[in-house]
């Protein structure tokens, strides 16, 4: 039986080991490609893989757990072990990771008194319940039980959020209660205040630091903190940021390979490292997070991160530069990759069917009536869209109306005609209304949950609740009487394409094609406005014509020989009769 200890350094079976790890998030990679990505990590010279565990995918609804398919992290860990890789797990309730709500489940927000990342009793009870299931999978994977997991993280960058040591101690106790036996660590920014706030002293927990530059300075800060607090242990950068994440409408962020490789060597000269990210992958579905600056800034579907492997798994120049650096510290293995991956240009595919959302609503969900509009969480909905509809009454002119307290993107329609789209830049601006029907005029408001904030003080903000939170004002009064259509789009197969299509309304577009050979491909979407797309029922993620990406990546395991079906939900009335599946991605 192997053992792992932290003394003056890291030891496996009393033998010093230099940890050279790379981050791969199993939940951002289809399971069929886990082995390929892990093999490429091994071939670069790494001896360890690190991954977060996001609470919100494993307990999507309170008390309902999912550890299958892309959520089967224990299988990911076992594949790593079969390749001779060690594993660092980060099962914190909060992960950040540019992931919706930092990995916290949306249903926590149903409690109006909820205080996340705190000793608030109901939060800790929820963590306890979650860990009671999660650790059934973790316990046998620990090195103390013959598995490859050598360390686990306590919370995540807590020093950039709070300094409640009682809370950190409570999370530690819960981890131990449910079976944690390997060493624990914290990871925080590499400066005094962050380390002071986020490190739990005198609990035999190793502090590590996260940074992407000024390696010698940052490592010196960590060493000084450890020396000042009489902590004996190795120096480790738990997140060496070699790239960055991206937001809609912004240029893609990259780092020079030569510059970052030099910093990488500095880390290995001084201690141990986990490369963030080795392979970023994809924010499938609606799980992208958002940052908050002056307003909510959602991240894009691609989590390429300018990593060592591209979003679609191809080694970059940076990969080979890092491999060269590692070769100065250890021997590099050489073996053939076991997964054959082809990239195929399938060409143009013609539109098969189309239908307006307004006409297929009843096939997707039953309306929920309430006098006042309800937010998404109150409707037991985590992600996607809500369509609010109401009758404004008889024919007349209304000089002023407005949305109140909506922090996402809202498209407003009057009798199915688009009259306004508002987002962070103009939510609450006046909307004049011309009611032109004699007795019934329907207002419809389609609100898209753009992604919850994943970092910073706004984690505890009312901004995290989605949908209409205040309401809709007509003149100087709130308008009452609303139907709610909850569109999480988990039942995309229920779209009824036999119903009518209306121009310039949110709509579904179906494209059917047949293939003989399966390969990775890219759905080009330059002719579409905003929305999301599905391949054979699987949600590939969001697209937006402002870029920087105008594609969605389709891994070949999501295709099937014979007939395949792409369904695109588009909200701006902008589409094209032909889509292209290319062997190359498309950028703005």
UniProtKB/TrEMBL annotation:
Cited SUPFAM superfamilies: (Trans)glycosidases (SSF51445), Galactose-binding domain-like (SSF49785)
Originating organism: Clostridium hominis
Family, as annotated: Belongs to the glycosyl hydrolase 35 family.
Keyword terms, alphabetized: Glycosidase, Hydrolase
Residues of the Beta-galactosidase galactose-binding domain: 506-564
Matches recorded under Pfam families: BetaGal_ABD_1, BetaGal_gal-bd, Glyco_hydro_35
Entry-linked Gene3D superfamilies: Galactose-binding domain-like, Glycosidases
Identification of the protein by name: Beta-galactosidase
Source organism superkingdom: Bacteria
Record-annotated Glycoside hydrolase 35 catalytic domain positions: 10-328
Keyword Hydrolase annotated: yes
InterPro entries noted in UniProt: B-gal_1-like, BetaGal1-like_ABD1, BetaGal_gal-bd, Galactose-bd-like_sf, GH, Gly_Hdrlase_35_cat, Glyco_hydro_35_CS, Glycoside_Hdrlase_35
Domain Beta-galactosidase 1-like first all-beta residues, every copy: 373-487
Segments passing through the bilayer: none
């Amino acid at each position: 039986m192997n053992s792992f200890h932290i003394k003056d350094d890291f030891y496996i079976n009393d033998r010093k080991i230099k940890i050279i790890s790379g981050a791969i998030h199993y939940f951002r990679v289809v399971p069929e490609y886990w082995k390929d990505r892990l093999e490429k990590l091994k071939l670069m010279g790494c001896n360890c893989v690190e991954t977060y565990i996001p609470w919100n995918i494993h307990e999507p609804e309170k008390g309902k757990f999912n550890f299958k398919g892309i959520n089967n992290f224990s299988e990911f860990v076992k594949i790593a072990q079969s390749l001779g890789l060690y594993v660092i797990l980060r099962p914190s309730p909060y992960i950040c990771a540019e992931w919706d709500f930092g990995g916290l489940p949306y249903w926590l927000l149903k409690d109006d008194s909820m205080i996340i990342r705190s000793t608030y009793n109901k939060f800790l009870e929820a963590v306890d319940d979650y860990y009671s299931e999660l650790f059934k999978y973790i316990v046998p994977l620990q090195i103390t039980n013959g598995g490859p997991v050598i360390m686990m993280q306590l919370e995540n960058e807590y020093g950039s959020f709070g300094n409640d040591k009682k809370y950190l101690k409570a999370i530690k106790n819960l981890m131990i209660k449910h079976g944690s036996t390997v060493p624990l660590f914290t990871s925080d920014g590499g400066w005094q205040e962050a380390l002071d706030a986020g490190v739990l002293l005198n609990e035999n927990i190793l502090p590590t630091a996260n940074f992407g530059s000024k390696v010698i300075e940052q490592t010196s800060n960590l060493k000084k903190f450890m020396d000042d607090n009489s902590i004996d242990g190795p120096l480790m950068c738990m997140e060496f940021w070699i790239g960055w994440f991206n937001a809609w409408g912004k240029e893609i962020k990259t780092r020079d390979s030569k510059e970052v490789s030099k910093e990488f060597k500095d880390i290995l000269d001084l201690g141990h490292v986990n490369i963030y990210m080795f392979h970023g992958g994809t924010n499938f579905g609606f799980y992208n997070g958002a940052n908050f600056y002056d307003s909510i800034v959602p991240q894009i579907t691609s989590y390429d991160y300018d990593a060592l492997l591209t979003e679609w798994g191809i080694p970059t120049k940076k990969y080979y530069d890092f491999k060269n650096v590692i070769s100065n510290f250890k021997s590099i293995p050489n073996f053939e990759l076991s997964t054959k991956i082809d990239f195929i240009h399938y060409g143009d595919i013609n539109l098969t069917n189309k239908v307006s959302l307004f006409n297929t609503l009843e096939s997707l969900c039953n309306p929920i009536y309430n006098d006042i509009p309800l937010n998404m969480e109150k409707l037991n909905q985590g992600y996607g869209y809500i369509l609010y509809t109401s009758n404004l009454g008889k024919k007349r002119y209304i000089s002023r109306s407005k949305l109140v307290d909506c922090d996402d993107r809202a498209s407003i329609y009057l009798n199915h005609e688009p009259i306004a789209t508002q987002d962070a830049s103009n939510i609450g601006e006046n909307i004049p209304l011309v009611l032109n029907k004699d007795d019934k005029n329907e207002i419809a408001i389609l609100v898209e949950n753009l992604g919850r904030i994943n970092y910073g003080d706004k984690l505890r903000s009312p901004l995290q609740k989605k949908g209409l939170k205040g309401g809709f004002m007509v003149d100087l009064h709130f308008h009452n009487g609303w139907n709610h259509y909850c569109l999480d789009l988990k039942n995309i197969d229920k779209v009824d394409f036999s119903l009518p299509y209306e121009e310039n309304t949110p709509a579904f577009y179906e494209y059917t094609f047949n293939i003989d050979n399966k390969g990775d491909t890219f759905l080009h979407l330059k002719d579409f406005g905003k929305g999301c797309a599905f391949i054979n029922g699987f949600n590939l993620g969001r697209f937006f014509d402002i870029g920087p990406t105008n594609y969605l990546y389709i891994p070949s395991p999501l295709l099937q020989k014979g007939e395949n079906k792409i369904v695109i939900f588009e909200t701006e009335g902008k589409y094209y009769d032909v889509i292209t599946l290319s062997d190359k991605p498309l950028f703005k």
